[in-house]
Amino acid sequence: MAENMAAKRRRLLERLKAPPAVRSRNWLHNFESYAAGECHLAENTVAAYCRDLRRFYDWLEGRDIAALSIRELADYVAWLDKQGLAPASIARHLVSLKVFFRFLQLEGVLEESVAELLGSQRLWERTPRVMSVEQVQRLFTAPGPDDPWWRRDRALLELLYATGCRASEVSFLRLQDLHLQESYCRCRGKGDKERQIPLGKRAISAIKAYLAEERPKLAAYAATAPDWVLLSRRGRRLRRERIWELVKHYARRTGAPADVSPHTLRHSFATHLLAGGADLRHVQELLGHASIGTTQLYTHVDLTRLKTIHKRFHPRA
């Protein structure tokens, strides 16, 4: 045990002898391994954290991380705002930075994390964009016979809205996860947590048409029989990035706002459920939220529902 502690101290001293820039690069590389291996964070979460931290390093410009003050970190937040980042993106950058600084504490690089003093994530939250039911319906009919794989794309759009799944969750959906006879699918979310989500008749119809007409043709391009539900034109798994591109492509075709994305369909799924009278706890379960506080964000979006509840229950409404 004593030998292990001594070896750890020697490694720490060797790292501290290196120039700050070199040490910083090593810390970032080690953090990536730590986040994936010890924290068991999802691959997309680790990738997002590392992208955020590379942006942090762009701002850092050779400064010594160990000597940063809270005032300097506040300047970093202001710099992010000047870069034109959305409030939700700034919030994630703050989370990434806090997790990174906690890692540096574990490594003995920092005695305390000044990043914890940065403003709460909630200060940077904004109300999510939601599409109307009519806008969603127009989006579903945007892929047509003139598009190369229009049945796949309709199935994709239907899946995103019918389940409220994230793009990454739909991307990793396997054939054995589909239970069309029983009208549900099984998806795996953050932390590899599994949940079952009901499927409506329209989504099932679109999926069946794709599975019968187009998926066998796409699967023929693969070297081995692919297990993924949604395939690319080369017979591989339809990647999350491509799903974003397809949603934005068809959204532009319908004249929808430029910032419509797969997550917009997830927001719309939740908001439309609440507008229809669904219980908040049930929506939390369908979305796979660990905290109901995250799901409560959608109660601020649906003003019509709040007015109805107020009128029904307030004695002086």
What does this 3D model show about the protein?
- The protein contains 16 helices and three strands.
- It has 317 residues and is mainly alpha-helical.
- A hairpin with a 5-residue loop joins strand 2 and strand 3 (194-198).
- It folds into two domains: 2-123, DNA polymerase, domain 1; 133-313, hpI Integrase, Chain A, CATH 1.10.443.
- A three-stranded antiparallel β-sheet has the order 1-2-3, with no helix packed on it.
List keywords for this structure.
mainly alpha; DNA polymerase, domain 1; 3-stranded antiparallel beta sheet; 2 domains; hpI Integrase, Chain A; 317 residues; 16 helices; 3 strands; globular; single chain
Summed up:
The chain is mainly α and 317 residues long. It contains 16 helices and three strands. Strand 2 and strand 3 form a beta hairpin.
Structural class: mainly alpha
Mind telling me the CATH superfamily name of the largest domain?
Intergrase catalytic core
**Helical content band:** 55-70%
| Strand order of the biggest β-sheet | 1-2-3
CATH topology of the largest domain: hpI Integrase, Chain A
Mean pLDDT: 83
- Overall tally of structural domains: 2
Specify the CATH class of the largest domain. Answer: Mainly Alpha
- Tally the helices: what do you get? 16
E-strand count: 3
Strand fraction equals under 5%
Poorly predicted sequence stretches spanning 5 or more consecutive residues: 12-22
Largest sheet: 3 strands, antiparallel
Distance between the termini: 69 Å
Shape: globular
Question: How do the helices and strands follow one another from N- to C-terminus?
Answer: HHHHHHHHEEEHHHHHHHH
The CATH architecture of the largest domain can be given as: Orthogonal Bundle
